[in-house]
Amino acid sequence: MSRAPDTWILTADCPSVLGTVDAVTRFLFEQGCYVTEHHSFDDRLSGRFFIRVEFRQPDGLDEQGFRQGLAERAKAFAMNFELTAPHYRPKVVIMVSKADHCLNDLLYRQRIGQLPMDVVAVVSNHPDLKPLADWHQIPYHHFHLDPNDKPSQERQVWQVIEESGAELVILARYMQVLSPELCRKLDGKAINIHHSLLPGFKGAKPYHQAYNKGVKLVGATAHYINNDLDEGPIIAQGVEVVDHSYYPEDLIAKGRDIEGLTLARAVGYHIERRVFLNGNRTVVL
Amino acid sequence: MSRAPDTWILTADCPSVLGTVDAVTRFLFEQGCYVTEHHSFDDRLSGRFFIRVEFRQPDGLDEQGFRQGLAERAKAFAMNFELTAPHYRPKVVIMVSKADHCLNDLLYRQRIGQLPMDVVAVVSNHPDLKPLADWHQIPYHHFHLDPNDKPSQERQVWQVIEESGAELVILARYMQVLSPELCRKLDGKAINIHHSLLPGFKGAKPYHQAYNKGVKLVGATAHYINNDLDEGPIIAQGVEVVDHSYYPEDLIAKGRDIEGLTLARAVGYHIERRVFLNGNRTVVL
Amino acid sequence: MSRAPDTWILTADCPSVLGTVDAVTRFLFEQGCYVTEHHSFDDRLSGRFFIRVEFRQPDGLDEQGFRQGLAERAKAFAMNFELTAPHYRPKVVIMVSKADHCLNDLLYRQRIGQLPMDVVAVVSNHPDLKPLADWHQIPYHHFHLDPNDKPSQERQVWQVIEESGAELVILARYMQVLSPELCRKLDGKAINIHHSLLPGFKGAKPYHQAYNKGVKLVGATAHYINNDLDEGPIIAQGVEVVDHSYYPEDLIAKGRDIEGLTLARAVGYHIERRVFLNGNRTVVL
Amino acid sequence: MSRAPDTWILTADCPSVLGTVDAVTRFLFEQGCYVTEHHSFDDRLSGRFFIRVEFRQPDGLDEQGFRQGLAERAKAFAMNFELTAPHYRPKVVIMVSKADHCLNDLLYRQRIGQLPMDVVAVVSNHPDLKPLADWHQIPYHHFHLDPNDKPSQERQVWQVIEESGAELVILARYMQVLSPELCRKLDGKAINIHHSLLPGFKGAKPYHQAYNKGVKLVGATAHYINNDLDEGPIIAQGVEVVDHSYYPEDLIAKGRDIEGLTLARAVGYHIERRVFLNGNRTVVL
C-alpha cells in the first residue's frame, strides 16, 4: 500500500468499450514503466471505465513525452487521464468554524507525514482556532461573516483559495452553508465532513436528530460538495455503536473521533488519486 | 452474561424519583434473593427510571408472595414490574414471505439453544418456506393474500397468534404492510427487521435506494412495530462496509448476514428482558 | 462485485519483472476479451507478482486456444495461470465433528446460491450431524475414529475426497488433528476455521484461553492447512467485542457467528479465485 | 452516559455474599442520595462482587460522614470502596519516547475536556516531544537513559511522579522496559498501550511480527502494567482490518489510530472509575 518514493500514479476514466485496459497498460509497457499496482473497474450500470495504476520508471520519466503520447492514445477512447508525480503534495486550504477536532487531526497527520499535503491556509468565520494554526505556522484568516452580506465573506474566502493555489479545500466542520456560486467553483475539489450517516439526518443538529430517533449507531460521512447541500458524492463513511445512555452531548463527543477518522481517510484517498466521480456516486480504487 | 439455570429476572420501570433503586434491592434482600447482576438507568431527559436485576433464590422462590409483596411496594412509585422465571421460553410466531435467511437463522438458534424460545408457528403469504419449517417440525400456515381483501388474511394471521398463545411475533422479512389495526394489537410484542439503517431508506427497496446514493455502509434495523411503519422504537442495528463494486444484488446479499445477526440480537435482548420502551426510544440494559 | 453470468476469471502469478501486466492484458485484448475488473499487485518484499482479471468474451471463448496461447506467453515469465469458467462450481467435501454452526451456515449459503459450490459429501468422526446433511440430500460419511488407529480413519476420509473429485475440503470445526501425510495431500486445497485470532491462542480450547487472559475481543481465523498445525496461510479473520460478563460458554456462543461468517468469507474468496499463496502469507485480490 | 456536574461516583468490591447490593443501595438511600446509574456484577467464577453507582446529593454531601458511615457497613463484607467527587480530575504523568501520536491525542482530549484530567508532567528518555508539551504549557522532563545505569533514570522518573502527586501514569508509547521495582510501585496506577492484540505478538516490533504471520487484522491493547511485561490486566482493545498490500510501515501507520483511540478509551474508563481488577482480568462497569 505504501508507495516507494519513486512511484507515479496514473488515473483515467472513459466510457466502457473494448480495449481500455490494454490501451493504458500497453502504453506503460512501451514507455518502460514498471507497474506495481493496477486496479481497474468497469461499471456495467453506468457504462463507465475507471483505472488507477502505480508505476515506477527507473530511468526517469519523460513527463511531457509521456503526457503527449498517452493523450494521443486516449483520444480514441474519450479518456480523461491524470498523471501524478512521485512526491506529489497538494496545496490545501482548510475551512473551520469553532470545533477543532478535525483540524487538529488533519494538522497532526500532515506534521508526521501521514497525509502528504501542504496546508497553505486555515480560513474561518471565527477567531477561535488561530492559536492551533499558529503553532503549526500556518496562516490563519478570520473573515467575519455578516449575515446580511454573506457574499463579501465568500469573496474573501475565494481569494485566499485562489491566491494560495490550493488544489483541495477541506471543510473540517465549517458550519456555514456555502452559496451555490462558491459550490460551483469548488465542484470536485472540496471535501466536507457531515456528522451523520448521510442521507440520514441531513441538515442541522444531526446528533440531536439521531438521539430523538433512538438509533443504536452514529456515523459520519465525507463527501465532495456540490450544489445540493449534504448530497454530494460520498467518499467515505464511518460508524460507532452507541446505546440509550448516550445523551446528545455524548453522541457529539463520540462523533468527534469518527468525524476525524472518516475525513482523514477521504482526504487520503483523494490525495492518493483513488477517488473517481461516477455520476452522483464515487468509485474508490 | 450466561445465566445460571436457577436465575430469575426482575425488570421494572417508573417515573424518576428518590428511592426507586432501594425499593427494589431492599425487597430482594428481604426475600433472601441473591443478586448476580443489577443494572439500572435513570433517564434525565425523559424523567424515567429503568431497572433489570438477575437473581437466585436458593431455597425456592414463593412466586405469588413475591409478586404480591413487590406490588405493594411498587404502588407508591407507580412502578410496573415483570418477574421472569428461570427457564422462561416464550412462545413465538414467525412471519415470513419468500426470503428465508432470517427464518433459517432463527430456527437454527432455537435448535441449538442459543435463543431460548418455542417457535409455535410460521405464518406466510407464500408457500415457499414450508419445507424449512417442516424439517424443524413447526406448523406452517400459508395464508394467501388477496390484494382486494387484506383484512381476511390478517384475521387468519391473528387467529394463529392468538390461539397459539404467542407472546412474541417476529417479522422475519415479512414483506407486507400490516394494517394499523393489527399493528395496534401487536404493539410492543412484535419485532421487525428492516433492511436499512433507519431512519435512512425507509419504505421499499432500501438496498436500491442505498445504491443510488452511493453509500459506503449498509445496515439493518430491528425495531418494535407500531402504527408508524418503519418508525417503531429501535432495538438493535448492524452495519457492514461496502464499496463501489457492490451492485444492488450484492448489497442485498451482503445485507442478509447483517439482517440475520441484527434480528437475532434483538430477539435475544427481548427474551432476556433487556429492552424497555422509553417513548419512541428503547433502553437496553 | 457480482459477476455477470458470462464472466471468466483469469488468475496468474510469477516472479516480479517488467512486463507482467502487459503480457496478460495484451493477450486478453488480442483474444477480443472484454475486461470488467482487473487487479494486480507486485509485492516488493517477496518479489512476486499477482494478477486477477474478470472478463467476458461475447463471441464465445475458444478455451483450448486461449490456454495454449497464454501458456506460450507465460513461459518467459515463469508464470502460473488458471482460467476459471463462467459457471464454475467446485465440488466440495466438508469435514465436521459435533458442532454444526459452520456446516449449517455453509449448506444454507450453497442452497440459496450465495456460495456457488456443490457439496458432494460431509465427512465426520461422529454420527450427530447426519440429519442436517440428509435434509440437504448430501451423502454423510461417519468414520469412527479409533485413537489407536487414526491412519485407517484418514484413509477412509481420503478415499471419499478422492473418489468424489473434490477440489476443496472445508474443515468446518473438525476437531481432530490431521496427520502430516493428509495435510500434505490437502496442501492449498483445504480451508480450516480456527476459533481464535491466530497466532494468538493456538491449540485446544482457545475460548478458555481467551477467558483466562481477559481479552476484550474474540475472533476466528480461516486459513489453508499445511504441515504446521494452526499455522497455515491466513485467508480471513473476524472479530467481535466482548466484556467481563462473558464466561467461557458465552465466548463460545459469541464465537459461533464469527466462525461461520469468517469461514464463509474465506470459502467465497477461494471459489472466486481471489486468494494467492505468497510464502506463508496470502494475497487476496 | 455524561454525568451531570453534581454527580458522585461510588465504587466497591468484595467477596461474593448475600446482601452486598442492598448494603450499598440502602446506605445511599438513607443518606438521601439520588442514584442515576447503578451497575453491579457478581462473578461466579472468581467469587467476587463489583459495583459502581453514580448519584447526586442535592443538599450537598457530608463527605466525611458518608465515608465513615459506609466504612462501618462495609466492614462486615470485607468491602473496599472508593468515593469520587463530582469534579474529579486526577493528576496524570505521561511517559513517552519519540512517537507522538498517543501524546498528541491525549493532550487534545484533555484540552477540550473529553478526558477530565490534569497532565502535570510529560517524561521522556528523548528530547523530541518537548515542543508539543510546551505548547500545552506542560512541564517536559527529558531524562537521558544510560543503558549502563537504568536505575538512575528510573529514580528521576519516580521523583517526578511522586513530587507531582500523580495518581495515574500513562505509558503513551514509552519504549523502555520498566524495572520490576518501578512496576511494583506503579501497580494498578499505570496504563500502557501495546501495539498488538495481546497476548498475540508480545515483545518488540509487533507489527513486523504481524506482517510475517500475514494477519488480516491488527490491533492494540491498553492494560495496567504489572511485573510480567505485556501481561498486565487488559482494559481495552481495538482492531482494524488490513490486507496483503500493507507493508510493515503501513501496519504501523494504521496502528497509530487504533493505539490512540484504545488508550484514550482505557484512560477514560479509569478516570470514570469503571475499571476493577479481578485477578489478572478486569471488570469494566
Automatic annotation (TrEMBL), chains A, B, C, D:
<keyword id="KW-0378">Hydrolase</keyword>
<protein>
    <recommendedName>
        <fullName>Formyltetrahydrofolate deformylase</fullName>
        <ecNumber>3.5.1.10</ecNumber>
    </recommendedName>
</protein>
<feature type="domain" description="Formyl transferase N-terminal">
    <location>
        <begin position="91"/>
        <end position="266"/>
    </location>
</feature>
<dbReference type="InterPro" id="IPR002376">
    <property type="entry name" value="Formyl_transf_N"/>
</dbReference>
<dbReference type="Pfam" id="PF00551">
    <property type="entry name" value="Formyl_trans_N"/>
</dbReference>
<dbReference type="InterPro" id="IPR045865">
    <property type="entry name" value="ACT-like_dom_sf"/>
</dbReference>
<comment type="pathway">
    <text>Purine metabolism; IMP biosynthesis via de novo pathway; formate from 10-formyl-5,6,7,8-tetrahydrofolate: step 1/1.</text>
</comment>
<comment type="similarity">
    <text>Belongs to the PurU family.</text>
</comment>
<keyword id="KW-0554">One-carbon metabolism</keyword>
<dbReference type="InterPro" id="IPR036477">
    <property type="entry name" value="Formyl_transf_N_sf"/>
</dbReference>
<dbReference type="GO" id="GO:0008864">
    <property type="term" value="F:formyltetrahydrofolate deformylase activity"/>
</dbReference>
<keyword id="KW-0658">Purine biosynthesis</keyword>
<comment type="function">
    <text>Catalyzes the hydrolysis of 10-formyltetrahydrofolate (formyl-FH4) to formate and tetrahydrofolate (FH4).</text>
</comment>
<dbReference type="InterPro" id="IPR041729">
    <property type="entry name" value="Formyl-FH4-Hydrolase_C"/>
</dbReference>
<feature type="active site">
    <location>
        <position position="230"/>
    </location>
</feature>
<dbReference type="InterPro" id="IPR044074">
    <property type="entry name" value="PurU_ACT"/>
</dbReference>
<dbReference type="InterPro" id="IPR004810">
    <property type="entry name" value="PurU"/>
</dbReference>
